[in-house]
Amino acid sequence: MSLYADTSFLVSLYIPDTHSAKAARAMAESELPVVLTSLGELELTNAMELRVFRKELTRFQVKQSLAMFHRDITSGVYFLKPLASTVFDRALQLVRRRTARLGTRTLDVLHVASALDLHARTFYTFDRRQTGLAKAVGLRVLP
Description:
Blueprint lengths: L2 E3 L1 H8 L5 H9 L5 E4 H16 L5 H16 L3 E4 L4 H17 L3 H12 L4 E3 L3 H9 L3 E3 L1
Parallel strand pairs: 1-4, 2-3, 4-5
């Protein structure tokens, strides 16, 4: 697999926000499938549920958005992989080498480690600190 998408990118695809147009363009130009891990699915679902809690989305909107996401998995837009145990070792190495300089959070490090573990070359994110980490380890970052 050569393309990995983090949660900030996925949220922008399924919930309209300031990055949605960029995310849609990037997907239109992407070579599919985009690889995801179970971490991405978990974090996307949680992000949507948090928006219900904050009264930013309705339960119906979340249900529709998650249904679209799962249809995209079924149709081959995404290739969903389980989170490998080796990701944690790689993430710990990244934390030791990069977090003090870049200020990355644990879940961001896990996404970058997952991309590396899955041999991705390109990383889709809208997160500034995660962008720094992904670039530092040699990933091409878009959009």
